[in-house]
Each structure stands twice: as C-alpha cells, then as structure tokens.
Amino acid sequence: MMTRLGRAPWPLLVVALALLVPAVGSRFYTFLANDVLIWALFATSLNLLVGYTGLVSFGHAAYFGIGAYTTGILMKKLAVPFVLAFPAAGIFAGLAALVFGFFCVRLTRIYFAMLTLAFAQIVWAICFKWNEVTGGEQGMPEIPYPALDWMDRLPWVGDLRTSDHFYLLTVLLVALCLWALRRIVGSPFGRILTTIRENPERAEFIGVNVRRYELIAFVVAGAFAGLAGGLFGIFNRGVFPDFAYWTKSSEVLIMTLLGGMGTFYGPPLGALALILLNQQIVSYTEYWPFVLGTILVVLLFVFPGGLAGAAGIVSRRLARALRA
C-alpha cells in the first residue's frame, strides 16, 4: 500500500487540486492560494542557495523586487504584453544576481550573508528614491492583469473572474518553474552543488571550480526569484519598495527553514504553513507577531529537519508499522 502511495504522481495531483480552487472555494481561498503559490516559488529559489549550495543569503528579496519592478514598468508604463514582461523579470533579476554574485561568492559564511544584505539594501534604496522610474516611496499601483481573453472561450473557465484567470495562469507558471528547478537540483549540476555544500574544500581538491558553480547557482536562484516577483506585482496589483526590503528576505528564509532546507518540497510546505499561521493568528489577536514567533521557535525545535523532515519520519514509521 505504501509503495503504491509512494509511486503516486503527487506533483500532478497537487497541480490538479490547485486548478480546482476557484470552482470549490470562495474568492478569499483563491486569493490565499495565489499568495501561497508565489511564495512557494520564491522560497524554492532561495532553497537552491541555502539548502543545496550552503550559501545563506540575507538579501534574496532584491531579485524578487527587481522582477516585480521589471514586470510592472514594462506592463504599466510601456504597455509590453505579459508574455514578454514575465520572462524579462527573470532575465533582469538574473543579470543583477550575476553582478552582485560576482562579489558575494568571493566571501564565505557570515561575510557572504552580510554582503548579500548590503546589495539588497542598495536595491531597496534605488526603488525608494528613483521617483521617475519606480514611483519612489509611493511605488507603482494599478499594475494591469495580463490579457487573458482567450480563457473566456474555454469551458467552465470562461465564467470565472479576471482574478481567477490570473490565478490559473499562476498555477501553470509556478508549476513549470518548480518543474525546471526540480530538474536542476536532480541534474549533475545539482549534485555538484550538494558536494560543495557538504565540503567545498574537497570539491575544490577534486577539480570543481567552486566559485563558478556558486555564482551559477546564485544567478539561477535570482532569476527564479525575479519570476516570482513578477507574478507577485500583478497579484498585488502594485509594486512597492518594501518588495526588496530585508524583511521580505527574512520571511522567505523562515519559510525555507520551517519547511526544511535541502528538501525540494520543504520550502513550499513552509510557505503554506507560514501564510496559514499568519492568517489565523492575525484574526484572533493583535499580538500576532509575538504568538507567531513563539510558534515558529517551537516548531523549529520540535522539527529540526523542518516540516518535510517530520513528514518523512511519520511516513517511514507508518510504513514500518504496516509491514509489521
């Protein structure tokens, strides 16, 4: 029985269930699911650095913000269609990651982390002050939805709202991005990153150019964070400087830790758990930061391997019990 469950196409089942949310849930649940999907992609992109390469970045929100502003400027100010503006978010974020990463990967551990934070603060300051391009402190509200008129001709889908159409598009794009990231971490390149995480000195000794691989991982992670930011700007119906602020980096880092670093499906679980906890606690008390922080500390102590690690332990114990 457990073997059959293990062989089930879980990713496809999750995508199918996500596509059904507008039909079976209220508008609020569709909004919540959209939020979870985008943050899941953002957290998974950070996990490529933290979980697979061993590089702790405190400034990953910089590329999230760059992607959001790229899509927002192209779609609102230049009337560029979404089909071009969305990949541009990943390209510009990846280019920024290439420039910043060139300097960051030369350092290690806490120095690397602090330099990523410094570059992120530079990006935030530019977004906050460059009024002519970014809108400055006021940001850029009213980012338009993509032109999705073709969905009106589809059965069942045509009766949904415009926001639901964008949600369905988000499901498909996030699923495609996660599939690409899954292929990357499962490739020989991904295995070299894991080797670097475990022992960079040994990897260097066997002929691996550690700095080059770390830079490539930095760029790939930044590009996918930019794609998540591009979706988030449209979902949020506006792009604002706080998208690139250090608090966004801390939120996505908490999601990665909570879900489980080094496990592919851990960060999406962490994103789901943190967003749901936040929604529930805010509705009950005004002291939600204190309550949320306490719950997170307890969870991280009880499940040091994250939620994905805990799920793995439960499934193995259940398998042993069924075999017995």
- In the CATH classification, which architecture applies? Orthogonal Bundle
- The level 1 CATH classification is Mainly Alpha
Shape, please?
A: globular
* SSE string: HHHHHHHHEHHHHEHHHH
**Total number of beta strands:** 2
Class of secondary structure makeup: mainly alpha
- Beta-strand content: under 5%
For the largest beta-sheet, the strand count, sense and barrel status come to:
2 strands, antiparallel
The neighbouring-strand order within the major sheet is 1-2
Indicate the CATH topology.
ABC transporter involved in vitamin B12 uptake, BtuC
The number of helical segments is 16
Helix content percent band: over 70%
Number of domains: 1
Low-confidence stretches: none
Q: Distance between the terminal alpha carbons, to the nearest Å? A: 13 Å
Mean pLDDT metric: 88
Report the C-alpha radius of gyration, rounded.
Answer: 20 Å
